[in-house]
Structure formats: C-alpha cells, structure tokens
Amino acid sequence: MTSDTEAPEDTQNPADGSEPESGIDEKKMSLIEHLTELRRRLMYAAIAFVAVFLVCFYFSDTFFNFLVEPLASVWSGGDRRLIFTALHEKFFTNIKVAFFSAAFLSFPIFAAQIYMFVAPGLYKNEKGAFLPFLIATPFLFFGGGAFVYYIVMPVAWQFFTGFEQLAAGSGGLPIELEPKVNEYLSLVMRLIFAFGISFELPVVLSLLAKVGIVSADGLKKKRRYAIVIAFVAAAVLTPPDPLSQLALAIPIIVLYEISIYCAILIGRRRDRDAAAKADE
After folding, report:
1. What is the pLDDT of residues 203-224, one digit of tens each?
2. What is 66-110 written as a DSSP string?
3. Residue 122 in contact with residue 221, Cβ under 8 Å?
4. The pTM of the whole model exceeds 0.85
5. What residues have CB less than 8 Å from 86, skipping those under 6 apart?
6. What is the per-residue pLDDT for 14?
C-alpha cells in the first residue's frame, strides 16, 4: 500500500524532475536550431566567399593593376617597374590579391548573413531600428577603402617616391625605388582594410548608443581618450610613418565627432518616445 500511494504522489508532484526535463529538452532543441541556422548562414557566407575568390583569382592581374594605379600615376611618363625575387612570389601574390579582393567584395554578403541570423529573434520595430545600421555598414567600409585609395595613396606615394635620387651626385650612385609586388600588395591591402574598418566607428558607437551602453555626454567626456586611442590605432594599423598615421588618425577623430552627433539624435528620439509613452 505504501508503495502504491507514493507512486502517484511522485508522478503528480510539480517539483518532480519530469517537467524541468521537458523544459530543458525544449531549450536544447532551441539551441540546436540556433546552431543549425548559424551553420547554414556560415555555409552561405563561405560559399559566396569561395565563388567570389575564384572570380577574383581569374581577374587577379586586373585587380592588381587597379591597386597599383596610384603608384603608376605618380610614375607616369617614366620607364618604371615592380619586381619579384622568388619564382613563386607572383603566383602567391595573385592568390593574396584574390583573397583580399574577395574579402573586401564579400563584406556586404557577410553583413547580410549576420542580419538574417539575428533578425528572427528581433521584434518588428527592432528590425526597423537595426536595418539602417546594416545598410550603412558596407557603405562606410567601401567609403574607407575609397578614401585611402583615391586621396591618401596618391599623396603618400608622391611623398615617399620623392626620396629617390635618380641622378647620381658627385661620387655617388642613383637611388631608385623598385618595389616588390608582394610587399606593395601587403602595404596597400593593410591600408585599405585599416581605413575600411576604422570607418565603421559611427556604426559601432551608434549601435551602443541605441541600446543604452554609451551616451552622447559620455562620449564627449571621453573625447581626449578617444584622440589618444585614434593615434595608437593608427600607429598599429598603418606603416610606421607619420604621414600614414595622421591620414588615419584624423578621419577616426572626425568619425568620433560624427558618432557623438548620432548619439545626440538617438538620445533625443529616445526622450521623445519616453515622453509620448508618459502622455499615454
């Protein structure tokens, strides 16, 4: 009798392990579904990257000629050249050109896949709030790359090539620049990605302001530290010369000021929404 009475009590007891186990199973299923979706998005991004990489490798010489155009324009009218000093160097340079070009051109696809992974967990108004940042991200990234390519590189290459001594002085030898293709590509892509990523600063800080992690007043108070960090980041991301560092640090500081303005607008809108809810 004792065992017969105890069994029903255990099965109907809400503190029994059966209910929590079903909840844990549901959470595990939810986690598995999220991991499956993440794997699917990563697979799409990887397939897109590989496809773009193959196309870029086929046109790698065209892409490299595009990247060398700022230097070629400085050397226009002269019989100048780039060199490679190892048999395999040009081949691996073409692979690097294809890789960097594919990473640069695939950036919007990666951003879209991230959004598609996050979007199902967002409310409709949250999707609407997040969408402008998603749209701005590739534009700012490409804007940073275009800024360094069309503005910074021509000035920097003109400055650095000015140290050549094409005519030998008395008792001396001419000093002529003959860049290696691999080293030139590494320098150019480092600059392009450094500027492209740095130009994402308004998106990052605006998102942080949107979720309430930072505020316009807080950004204003930290301005002096931001200036120091901008120069430190420029020193790390660019070649060790003052011209390149200034060319990156100054835009970062300007973008920081733009981020403050964006945070002000976000704060005002939040206050208006709060006032409207209070009136209701």
Report:
1. 999 988 888 888 999 999 999 9
2. HHHHHHHHHTTTS----B--STTHHHHHHHHHHHHHHHHHTHHHH
3. no
4. no
5. none
6. 45
